[in-house]
Write a structure and sequence with these properties.
It is a single chain. By secondary structure, the chain is α/β, with parallel strands linked by helices. The protein folds into 2 domains: about 200 residues, Glycogen Phosphorylase B (Rossmann fold, 3-Layer(aba) Sandwich), CATH 3.40.50; about 180 residues, Rossmann fold (3-Layer(aba) Sandwich). The chain has 13 helices and 13 strands. Strands 9-8-7-10-11-12-13 form a 7-stranded parallel β-sheet. A 6-stranded parallel β-sheet has the order 3-2-1-4-5-6. Strand 7, helix 8 and strand 8 form a beta-alpha-beta unit. The longest helix has 24 residues. The protein starts with 11 loop residues before the first helix and ends with a helix. About 40% of the residues are buried.
Length: about 400
């Protein structure tokens, strides 16, 4: 073993170079970097910098920590360092003092060249450092345990106590360096571990998820869909994922939609951003021409706040393992199909009853300790899985809700 014994969250081809890198980083950290001091921790009104190079789902999950921090430190100042693509999550959040952008090259999914991503990475890093140096932070917490932590900016910032995972390198720059526990665990459990040095100790089952968004009346929301407010609560169909390997077939979704149309008078709203969802709506219309008025396309028409508002007015939602799952389960009973996903690690943290149907073998016998959450392992996403989802829907949604007006 070269250097400090660390447990990297990476294949051997990546872990070995990280190990060599950390030999250099550790030697640097033992020098003048380690001897810097900015005074005692402010226990009354600490300035806290939360860091994440992840995407919208990561940002939403991270925001669940803000109330926990403020409960422990009512006068805390919370700044966020994150990719600019996460702004829709932070908008209107009253807990945040400011958001600073750093667009990490490894997590930038924008449709630009690799060279452009590197240029954006370099420019945003320089601007972020210039902006953040105006504050002496009591704590910094980087929640990334896999690719693209942002520990590399720490030597340029003024931070009294630096917390994070050393699983992807630069761990020597941290005052509190954590590693992955044995076995499968939920992503938010890993974040909760990082809060314990701040004196914040809570359990996953007690976390209250939320998403701040402007309040919309049904009339305002349905006007965005060029529709009048329906008599019955809608059922949301969100069939898209950012990863094609996690998508289910058009026939699977069409079969599910057919079962819902036959059993309920409620309209189906097709939520998405790609032609896949449009194709699904058209396929269902062709199979059920008498129900065309109940089939409402919403492709490209809804912002994140609109989806959240619509879920609060919906009877239920059927989604994939993607951001709409995490939004919908805050507002209505939700089914989440997770094909080729990461299992319990990213099960949704909802405030409404939620069913996760997944094929993640390592999570087959695991249960997430959250009220109202059920999970079931499946080997194939066939018609029987759609039947299981419909059975859960029937048993979970009160019959009196089916015909209730908005």
């Amino acid at each position: 073993m070269i250097g400090k014994d660390r447990k990297y969250c990476a294949p051997r081809s990546v872990a070995y170079p990280l190990q060599l890198l950390d030999v250099v980083v550790d030697r640097y950290a033992q020098g003048a970097y380690r001897r810097r001091t900015y005074g005692a921790i402010n226990e009354v009104a600490p300035a806290i910098l939360l860091m994440s190079s992840g995407h919208l789902g990561d940002a939403l999950i991270l925001s669940y920590t803000f109330p926990l921090i403020r409960q422990r430190y009512p006068n805390a100042r919370i700044d966020v360092l994150a990719g600019s693509w996460c702004d829709p999550i932070w908008n209107d959040n009253p807990y945040i003092n400011r958001v600073v952008h750093l667009d990490h090259v490894s997590t930038n999914r924008r449709a630009v060249s690799r060279w452009q991503k590197w240029r954006t990475f370099g420019k945003s890093t320089r601007l972020a450092i210039q902006t953040l140096r105006d504050t002496v932070y009591d704590y910094s917490i980087d929640i990334r345990f896999s690719a693209a932590p942002m520990h590399f900016v720490l030597p340029y910032l003024n931070v009294k106590r630096k917390i994070g995972y050393g699983t992807r390198g630069f761990g020597g720059l941290l005052d509190d360096e954590f590693f992955m526990p044995e076995g499968e665990t939920h992503n938010f459990e890993l974040i909760l571990q990082l809060l314990r040095p701040l004196g914040i100790d809570t359990e996953l089952r007690a976390v209250k998820p939320y998403f701040y968004h402007p309040v919309q009346t049904p009339e305002q929301l349905w006007a965005r869909l060029d529709q009048s407010v329906p008599t019955h609560k809608p059922i949301l169909i969100c069939p898209e994922s950012g990863a094609p390997v996690r998508m289910l077939s058009l026939d699977f979704w069409a079969d599910l939609c057919g079962k819902l149309l036959r059993d309920n008078p409620n309209p189906l709203v097709f939520v998405g951003q790609t032609p896949f969802t449009t194709q699904l709506a058209e396929q269902v219309k062709q199979a059920f021409p008498a129900d065309t008025e109940r089939l409402i396309p919403a492709v490209g028409k809804l912002r994140l706040g609109d989806i959240a508002s619509l879920s609060e007015q919906a009877l239920a939602a059927f989604t994939l393992d993607s951001l709409p799952t995490h939004l919908c389960c805050l507002g209505c009973p939700t089914v989440s199909f997770q094909k080729n996903g990461q299992g319990i690690q990213f099960f949704p943290i909802g405030s409404q009853p939620t069913l996760v149907l997944h094929n993640h073998k390592l999570s087959e016998s695991l249960v997430l300790d959250r009220p109202g959450l059920q999970g079931a392992y499946v080997t194939d996403f066939d018609a029987s899985v759609a039947d299981d989802a419909i059975h859960w829907f029937r048993s979970t949604v009160e019959p009196t809700n089916v015909a209730r007006q908005l």
